[in-house]
Amino acid sequence: MNRENENKTIKKLVMWILIIVWMICIFLFSSQNADESSELSQGFLRSFVLKFLPDNISRNQNTVDFMEHLLRKCAHMTEYTILGVFISVQIRLYKTFRREWQKVLAAVLFVMLYASTDEFHQLFVTGRSAQVTDVMIDTCGGLIGAGLTAAIVAILHGRNKCREGKGGLL
Predict the structure, then answer these.
(1) Measured between alpha carbons, how far is 64 from 51 in angstroms, rounded to an integer?
(2) Scanning 47, 86, 102, 158, which has its CA 20 to 30 A from the CA of 96?
(3) pLDDT tens, 12-69?
(4) Using N-to-C axis directions, what is the helix angle for 100-122 and 132-163, rounded to 10°?
């Protein structure tokens, strides 16, 4: 096996490890019962957000509840944005798809499938439920991750073309 193939094999293995570890992290967050999950969100709010808001906002329970809900949805999207990036990179390493939209679509479909299984898993966790809206939010996160990956690859590809004197994006 030549050096280039060896490097590609190592990159693929590293990406599989990152993907699996990240999926386990998502699974563990989803395994928290409703009280544990809420406590984590509220702890973050108290430590990093509410400290910097005026008392009339930070003491209003409706506002705090709304902020907690928003924080939880942003956390969902962020978890799956990261997964979308990891999956997109892996898809590129395998060179299975030629067209950019196929790479993005494959990554988004993978994320949507994992998000669906994760929501199903939550049916068995005390105080949690499966939400179709969460699958949609997670899938949007995957789309953001896959889109960011595609954009970064396009920019880097354009830079390489410019360096070679062939034009490009920049």
Answers:
(1) 12
(2) 158
(3) 999 999 999 999 999 999 999 888 887 888 787 777 776 777 776 667 778 778 888 8
(4) 150
